[in-house]
Amino acid sequence: MIDRSNGYGADWSAGLRRAPEDELEAWLALAHEACDEADAIARAAFRRDLRIDTKPDRTFVTQADTAIERAIRARILAAYPDHGLVGEEYGTEGGDAATRWYIDPIDGTHNFIRGVPLFGTLLAAERDGELQAAVISAPALRERWWARRGGGAWARSADDPEPRRISVSRVTALADAQVLYGSTNDLEASGRAPGFRSLLRDVWRERGFGDFWGYALLAEGAAEAMIEVDLNSWDAAAPFVLIEEAGGRVTDFDGRRAIDAGTFLATNGLLHDEILRRLRG
Predict the structure, then answer these.
(1) Per-residue b or e along 113-149, where b marks 16 or more CB atoms closer than 10 Å to that residue's CB
(2) Which H helix or E strand runs over 228?
(3) For residue 183, what is the DSSP state?
(4) What is the pLDDT of residues 99-112, one digit of tens each?
(5) What strands, in cross-sheet order, belong to the sheet with 205-207?
(6) pLDDT tens, position by position, 29-67
């Protein structure tokens, strides 16, 4: 990601558009179609007998992960053969392309393996180093979130007759904030957030809602912050666009806009600087 000023808000996010609106809408349409296919693959495998393999980094992968990423890659390259791809299971292809797609076929693989319905497919498109559009689809929940620069952040569940525009909360006090996080063990072991436990003692409510789910709740205004470490670019890219278009702010623990730093703080913007300071201890 290109490091820019520490602004935030939907109007500010709109100024980061790097492609015409009709092009961004076409990317979103393609991402929705790809997620429709991914949802069908994931639902067919969920709570079924799975072949589970261990990757070299000791994380797990299922046949659904690989099938989904293959399908998404094929769909993107059929429509845009000059676009690059950055995926969890099959790596980088066309890494020097002006437009690149970040693919997380199943975010929350451990949940998927254990039969927990909090998993989803994450897709995001980047132009000239700036993320432009994203879709997050949760097939077991039958919910989906999406955004593009200048187009707002949106969500739709299976029971919604129409999409609904979403935005972050306006909570300004830590004592009124709900703070989410991925893993207390990972955060503490990283050594990057010495003030994490102290922060949790001073907020209204804290919950360990990891993976995409925490970011979706933040974008919908149901929480004020989501804190994680050990993220990869494909984990972070789609939430990045969604939250910024919903009016929030996203940085690493050093305050830089980045999806490859390994640390990730997303907030409603109003509490961002205070939470950053508290995390640093």
Answers:
(1) beeebbbbbbbbbbbeebbbbbbbbbbbeebbbbbbb
(2) strand 225-229
(3) -
(4) 999 999 999 999 99
(5) 205-207, 178-181, 225-229, 263-267, 249-251
(6) 999 999 999 999 999 999 987 776 665 555 767 899 999
